[in-house]
Amino acid sequence: MTGGPPGAPRLKARDLDIGYGGETVVAGLTFEVQAGESLALVGTNGSGKSTLLKTLVGLLPPLRGDIDVLGAPPGRVPKRIGYLSQFHASGFVLPLRAIDVVRMGRFPARGLLGRMNREDDECVHEAMRAMGVEEIAGSPLRSLSGGQQQRVYIAQVLARRADLLVLDEPTAGLDAGSRERFSQAMRSELARGACLVTATHDVQEAAECDHVLLVARRVIAVGPPREVLKPENLLEAFGIVLVLRDEQLGIAVVEREHGHDAEHHHPSH
Question: Which of 43, 165, 198, 233 is at 20 to 30 A from 155, Cα to Cα?
Answer without folding.
Answer: 43
